[in-house]
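Dear U.,

For the methods section draft, I wanted the exact inputs and outputs in one place so we can describe them consistently. I've listed the two proteins in the order they'll appear in the manuscript figures. Please don't edit the token lines directly; just add comments below if something needs changing.

First protein:
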Amino acid sequence: MNLYSNKQKWKVALIAVALLLVGISLFISNSIVSKVGDQERARAKQWADAIKKKLELVRLTDQTFSKLRIKEREKMMWWIEATKEVSKATPLDLLEDKLPDFTFPLKIINNNKDIPVILLDDQQQISGSINIDFDTTDLRLTHPNVTSKTLQLIFEDSLKKLADRWKKVNKPFTIEVYEGLFMTYVYNDTKEIQALENNRDSLLSSFNQELIENKGLVPVLLIDDKSGEIVGSNLAKEKLTKKRFKTTLAELKLENEPLIIDFKNGQKNILYFDDSPELKLLQYFPYIIFFIIGLFILIGYLIFSTFRKAEQNQVWAGMAKETAHQLGTPLSSLMAWVQLLDAQEIDPMIPREMQKDIDRLEKVTDRFSKIGSGAKLTESSLVETVKNLVDYLRPRISDKVTFEFVAETDIYLRHNAPLMEWVIENICKNAVDAMENSGKLSIHIHSTPEWAHIDIKDSGKGIDPKKLKAIFQPGFSTKKRGWGLGLSLVKRIVTEYHKGKVFVLESQVDSGTTFRVSLPL
């Protein structure tokens, strides 16, 4: 019992230490995961702030462009008014030398060196243009073989197409120059404004491209609080389709609490974000490591346990064979003494009983010699095997123990009689010890279509329920000087040699225990 108790204590201690180490490791790994998660949330917040700055920049730039366009339109109005004023001069005024002072209007007209303007008559034909960045000389390079008249028509056609595009950008001016004569002034943004717009669009495009290609950023989705439109995201396009958008939004809400980006002007954006794939892997990494370590430990334990059992089997087999060998010499001597006693004129019961003991010792010797080698199973009566053992045990145990043997029917099956007698004998002796040599011991043999059952019941002190799982383990014993080998050998004989089962069918403290040995038919 001490060996088994120490073994159990060591197991409990090792399990406690292992659980403590696992707990410490999980605590440390979870702390690391938590810190990494905080860093990712900070990065997501920084990204949201960058988006906020971008939106502020776009809004400021749009306001600036709006102001510049308003100024350009005012400048165009002044330029048109100046042109209109100059155009009021008639040929009669030229003849009579009554021209008004056009110094200021002409100054306004001459100052327009950057706003491109195309003048169309009421038939939408080209009447003139200024500040156009190409002319017929440029067109001659691409049309070297056409006439000057054709080249002029190509030039005017190009201006018409250009005017149509400009109308979509800036609203044209239609002025009545003379009574019944209307002229349309179509203009475009200056080159400086166009260059600024191109630079702005390029910056925004590069910002968005960098956002999409930034693999180090956690998955984020920024939407407008009022309209629900997507402001920015680095999620895959298929996750942002109309069909999957609601699902994606719900999944992100479950992962992390969204952040509110307040622009302090009534406009708010909501930032939804997920943990990075690396962080998710890191969360499961400790469990994967522990699983792998546990798998290796289990495999190692099974291997070493197999080796240990093999060594134990070899030790037991060697010890048993050596015991059988040592018993051979005194047995031979005892047999000679019995023969000598038979020749003497003494009570014949004495040598007869001594012969029974010698036969029993021969069986014990045979049992020990069979340990470690395959037991030979023969078809014979199980009832007869058990009955022979009962007949032997009855006169050799206390008279205060009542024996009861019941067999419903004779059962024939393949078994090794000497080993099976050993099984029943071990269980019966343990039962007698549990009853302290006083009580009732019954053996009941019965069968089902698949099994033959031997129930051995005593009226002893019973077995503690906590110890039921351990009674068949080597080293477990309730006796002070017990080695804990009897029931372990019983189980080995039944399970390994006979492919059967042995277990405690029923046990109650202070009421008794019932062991069942089941052998396949």
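Second protein (the one for the lower panel):
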Amino acid sequence: MSGVGIDAPGSTQLFIGNEAIARGALEAGIGVASAYPGTPSTEIMASLISVAKEMNFYAEWSVNEKVAMEVAAGASFAGIRAITSMKQNGVNVAFDFLANLVMSGIGAGLVLVSCDDPSTISSSNEQDLRNIAKWLDIPLLEPATFQEAKDMTKWAFDLAEELNTICMIRSVTRIAHARGNVRLGELPKKEQKAHFDSICPVVPTLPKFISYPSAWLHSQLHAKLDKARELFESSPFNWYTGPEEAELLIITGGSCWLYSLEAVKALKLENKVGILKLGTIWPLPRKLIELHLGKSQKILMVEEIDPFLEGSIKELVADLPPATPRPTFYGKHSGHINAYGELNPDLVIEVIASIMNLTYESRPAEYSKKAEEIPFTYMPPRIMTFCSGCPHRATFWAIKNALRLDGRDGFVTGDIGCYTLAIGPAGFFQMRTMYCMGAGAGVANGLGKLGQFGFNQPVLAVCGDSTFFHAAIPALINGIYNKSNFTLVILDNNATAMTGFQPHPGTGVTGMGEITTAVDMEALCHSLGVQVEVCDPFDLENSTATLLKAIAQDGGPRVVIMRRECELVRGRRDKKPPYKVHVDPDKCLGEACGCDRLCTRIFGCPGLVWDSESGKATIDETICTGCGVCTDICPQGAIIREAV
């Protein structure tokens, strides 16, 4: 067996952070794993699913994060260790159940891994999940290295069972997707037996796993945190490096520890600057922190995103005896470090140099001057766009034309997914709102009830097929129930494409590769009593006509399913394009056409290229997937498709 499931204790493997977390779960002896795909967390479940059958545990891609959390909790209640993973936005979805779960306690070890995304590299917003752990009184750990990611995950299961509460691990994109060496431990060989013990050991007449609205339960939760704090005081995931008396003390954790370490070394301040690295983030190990606070009267807090450690440690300092010297804090509140976005070694170097009154030059001034003199034209423009042959490009082309033909200033509401690119030139600037999954349909509900105020603009809400099952069904039902006037356009490309083509309830296959009943979204919508039309987005004429007809109607919602398999999925399977596409140079009139280079400037498929030397459009055969849609948008018929 290869990858995260390799049975070679003592060996060293090269893992990304997410694989290291998955390996830690395996070494902890999990029996169940559940998740909904969300970058940067996706590879945790992908790694576990890849070995689930061989290692005899159960893993699934759940319909959404709340259900994933509940699946894992159900296994825990029956004595089976379980893990669930999600990105920061996913915790919002699971929050309702999570807030109750912390009150009831658990059975076997239960771990939630949340991967934050500083700078919103692949997210709709930037959140710091450490605040939720503090708010809900959940023990929280954060790895700084790949070895820690593995070891910390394994330990979290023991911790969860000792405290009888769920434990959280917070990772960030740079840990989740970077790669490093991990020394493997033993894989457990014992078989697990599930049994649901429903009797409460404290009050035998009451069910065990119920979040009673009781102050007593809340007091027990605080007692668990006190116990966690005592355990954290001697945790191997906390340590200090540097002089006993430092000119500056850095308190940090996670990936920011690596940035701080590199910055101190670059400035050659190892004998002047100390670093207190914390892996147990909440509750804070108070005694350990108090011990090191006296090392310096200047303390720099290095963390992403919110001033979580900064605020929590200031609270701790406020409780110290009045005569205790108060250090000067540097961080987000002082303006030295931004309370948003990612950090990096260069930023930390600048902050330390500023506090220590040092001058640091990251590169020679002469080099910087030469770099600034390089003409911008040397760098080709690269805009975010849909893949070549993506059906979403054709869908938004049809939407654009339908709304223009309708003439009532209609618009599109949407959410997060590949189709989010429609807020820009890739989707012809058609999408006007973008929030969480399913929000396009939810927002359309409100807009669709404004007729009494003179509102007459057509509203189209778009969502992907995976998003439809995840979050859009309740919004559709709400629209039907309240007779909201909007058109729901489901972009059905038969995959959770944005995060790596994971299956969903409509694909007919589970995450573990088992054939299952495919939930028919068309039949489901019909069963709700809503009008449904199914189109092939590559048939631009029919798609445009269908959308135009849908938005012309009034009353309750209508559904248009744009069904065409993701080109990357089709291409991997079929290994050849459906058509060979080329441009007839005699028919292409170039700038004289009058279309203002509609094909390359507006339609913008990466497979279409403007040849400035010949003054005509051409096809990049390396990139072109042979979908042939561009043949229908050329006014001169100069783009030709031929069956392969």
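Candidate sentences for the figure legend, describing the second protein: The first helix runs from residue 17 to 27. The chain has four domains: 3-233, 239-355, 391-572, 576-643.

Thanks,
Y.
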